[in-house]
Amino acid sequence: MDFATIATLRKYLSIKHSLPGRIRIKFSLGIMKDPEAMKLAQSPPDMPDAVKDTSVNIFARTLLIQYDADRIPPALLEELISTPDDDRAAEIVRELHEILFA
């Protein structure tokens, strides 16, 4: 899951637990009906190398992302998931892209 996909699907997501370098995201069942989520399940995108690992627990409906907190600001990642503002989410995706790929 890349950051743009997280931004697109964030209406189904909530932060269950977060520490710098590790965030557990809960997803609602509604995500299973979203066409973007279905595409993601069939062909997961590559993550930046600052993301060390991701794992999904379908039964608990959680996604665990382990990342380099020195490269990905934890507060920015949390805001990406929790912001209700589409424009702000797009801005955060751009900021993360600049941080990681510039």
H-E order: HEEHEEHH
The neighbouring-strand order within the major sheet is: 1-2-4-3
Low-confidence stretches: none
Beta-strand residue fraction: 25-35%
What is the helix fraction of residues, given as a range?
25-40%
Q: Tell me, rounded to a whole number, the average pLDDT.
A: 91
Compute the separation of the termini in Å.
Answer: 20 Å
What is the 3D form?
globular
How would a crystallographer describe the biggest sheet? 4 strands, antiparallel
Helix and strand content put the structural class at: alpha+beta
Rg calculated over all Cα atoms: 13 Å
Provide structural commentary.
The chain has helices spanning 3-9, 35-42, 74-82, 86-101; strands at 13-19, 22-27, 51-57, 62-67. It is α+β, with helices and mostly antiparallel strands and 102 residues long. The chain has a 4-stranded antiparallel β-sheet with strand order 1-2-4-3, with helices on one face. The chain starts with a helix and ends with a helix. The model has no long low-confidence stretch (mean pLDDT 91).
Per-chain topology:
Layout: H1 3-9, E1 13-19, E2 22-27, H2 35-42, E3 51-57, E4 62-67, H3 74-82, H4 86-101
Antiparallel strand pairs: 1-2, 2-4, 3-4
